[in-house]
Amino acid sequence: MSSQKRDGFTSKFGVIAAAAGSAVGLGNIWRFPYITGENGGGAFLLMYIFFVVLIGIPVMMSEFVIGRRSGSNAIGAFRKLAPGTSWWLVGLMGIIAAFVILAFYGTVAGWTLEYIVQAFQNSFSGKSQTELGDSFNNFTASTFRPVLWQMVVMVLTGAIILRGVSKGIEKVTKILMPLLVVLIIAVCIRSVTLPGSAKGLEFLFKPDFSKITFKAVLMALGQAAFSLSVGMGALITYGSYVKKEIPLLGTCFSIAVTDTIIAILSGIMVFPALFALGGESVGGPGLVFVTLPGVFQSMPGGYVFGIIFFILVFLAALTSTISLLEVVVAYFKEDLKISRLKATLIATVSISVLGVLCTLSFGKLSYIKLFDKTIFGLADYVSANILLTFGALFIVIFTGWYLGKSKFIEEAKLACKVNPVVLNVIAFIIKWIAPIAIGAVAIGTFFIEGLM
Ligand code: PHE
Hints:
- The chain has 18 helices and no strands.
- By secondary structure, it is an all-alpha fold.
- The chain is globular.
- Helix 4 (about 75-80) runs antiparallel to helix 5 (about 90-120), helix 8 packs antiparallel against helix 14 and helix 10 packs across helix 18.
- The protein has helices spanning about 10-25, 25-40, 40-70, 75-80, 90-120, 130-140, 145-160, 165-190, 200-205, 215-230, 235-240, 250-275, 285-295, 300-335, 340-360, 375-405, 405-410, 420-450.
- The chain has one domain: Hydantoin permease.
- The structure holds phenylalanine (PHE).
- Phenylalanine binds near residues 22, 26, 101 and 229.
- Phenylalanine binds near residues 25, 26, 229, 232 and 324.
């Protein structure tokens, strides 16, 4: 398809909003706190930030460059830029990652819908952390409601994707992101003013390096990739809709900064409250769903707050699910030459099937375990830590070694006003530092602790 005929983002702000909308989501608000909690707090946070800067931004630049230069989907992009080679397999891995992520992500996005309803019904009121934990466990272990909510998520995602890029994706994200930030800050203020909250801040900000294992380093890298939506072609796909007049570097910085601030704010929402409310025993995927209702109860206007908060978290999740589905749909549509409608239907239905298995793995299918993980746990772990990590590795190797510095800079410098030295530094990181760092973490974990 010629580049003129493709749909595209209409403005710089539109691109940032859509890509930041992809980045900001459950990865920040739900996954970041629980992974940070399980991997040592402050020291994990430092490694996370280190990886966002050193790996996240260079991979994001690479993806945008690959996407815009090729004007194609995640697989098509490699086919166009490296014809006759096997590089398209990197795109294929990305499509698989999108599939797996959307499957379990839909589960959690569905939970937020249940929590909107519960917030409306005032069902958190008067409950202790233990009781909130029990009700979370009972809900997620049931069958009908979690699956129903997941289907709602998938249908809504499919419906937005059907409307195309500028009409669907761009419009929705532009309005909602700023509102979410305001609400998160309000919850942070309540969380840090709860009596006994200081310990939580200490946990989040005082690094204790004795807690760091190789696996924690891999998890920090995986979380950085997951949260920034890099390593699987979402930003190749979005990059293909970006016009030449838009400076990529500034866009990447804005996205990375926004995403990281929201992750840290989510940590400030959760950990002080967790320590103050005495819910330390609640970990894992239930963390925010148990801690935050506790905070809302102790806030003036907490009832309304809880409702709006879960609505916005759901919408943040939706701007991420659409970017995941778009990766698969853009590929189906362009490579298999089918209509957007058909591509959306096939992708939505097939991902939902895997998604339901993830959802049921908290209840009926909880007995199915592989490497000591449930289906959901495995999808969560494998996608971020293996698929995205290796995806990021291959993407920087492709950009640094196959595409090459001059083509990278030629594309990256379009409309870009920064000092050319900065682009040279990024090209150097892409070629040398990022591949070595990602490779070292992956090999270190694999050989020393085993991948799972
Ligand atoms: N970055 C999204 C989040 O933090 C998740 C995501 C990962 C979206 C990969 C697209 C691609 O919620």
